[in-house]
Amino acid sequence: MQAVGSDNVVEENVVALEIRKVSHALGAEVIGADLSKPLDDRTFQQIRSAFLEHCMLLFREQALTREQFIAFSRRFGDLDLNEARPAETKVEGIPELMLVVSRPKPDGAPATGRYFGADWHTDNSHLPVAAAVTLLRAIELPEVGGDTMFANMYRAYEMLSDGMKKLLEPLYGVHMLSRAVYDLSTPERAAESWRRFPAAAHPAVRVHPESGRKALYVNDQVRLFVGMTAAESRSLLRYLSEQAVDQHNVYRHRWRKNDLVMWDNRCVLHRALADYDRTQVRHMERTTVHGTTSGYSYQGPAE
Q1: Burial 216-241 (b: 16+ CB within 10 A, else e)
Q2: pLDDT by residue (tens digit) across 29-65?
Q3: Residues 13, 14, 20, 22: is their CA dihedral positive or negative?
Q4: What are residue 244's phi and psi, to 5 degrees?
Q5: Strand 282-290 relative to strand 172-175, pairing
Q6: Is residue 55 within 8 Å of residue 264, measured between CB atoms?
Q7: Among residues 28, 29, 98, which one has the least CA distance to residue 70?
Q8: What's the whole-model pTM score?
Q9: Which DSSP string do the residues of 33-76 spell out, in sequence order?
């Protein structure tokens, strides 16, 4: 694929795209693309190259229909149909779309409950085939806040010492949903727990299938390393998680209406911030592109 340099205008027969970095750590804004229209192959390859280089892309002022959003998403691969998602996150007749909505109660009281995506994570890492790409667009936003943060896991790995890299190379981290609670007291209860809350073991150091670069693949949803107890794993996980989200390794995105942001889950962590008035609506819509198998289903000690 043709490389796209940072802060350069790429000339193309149909569309001229400008790729402008949004932070030193990661991310770039694509200027000049209208995603409501079908993209010719050369323009799409420019976007794809920029995505692999910058790990996260921002498209402003994309007032798309749901069908247009899904059509663009599908250019990157097969989409998750969200079968296991709660009913309130689904849209009838559009299984590829997932709603990420926080809205006040009917009486105007603030939204309650655990905030979706509050932990640093990569999407679907509790499954052997974790997400490759997530695309998220802003439909309705609170007056201020509701930002999303991203961390570059290539850089997180590269900042480690040679000794730490050698230690991590053979390790597999067990990824579990943050809300998962397991009852392993009997075979029957264990089977039901693993059915409700599947878990997967993935390499702690993951080689990106397209770029070939190594990335740290550890986040707040990793509870332990295979072959270790949770207690034995805890200190190492804490260190790696803190290393990954060092202030010099993150980008904080302040949303505008009709923003579309896409990120590479294979080398990026993200988290959503509940730093807004919960009496206001935050309505986002998401698609998720399946990745390749990078781990295996885990059913072992949960603590």
Answers
A1: bbbbbbbbbbbebeeeebeebbeebb
A2: 999 999 999 999 999 999 999 999 999 999 999 999 9
A3: negative
A4: -65, -35
A5: unpaired
A6: yes
A7: 98
A8: 0.91
A9: --TTSPPPHHHHHHHHHHHHHHSEEEE-S----HHHHHHHHHTT
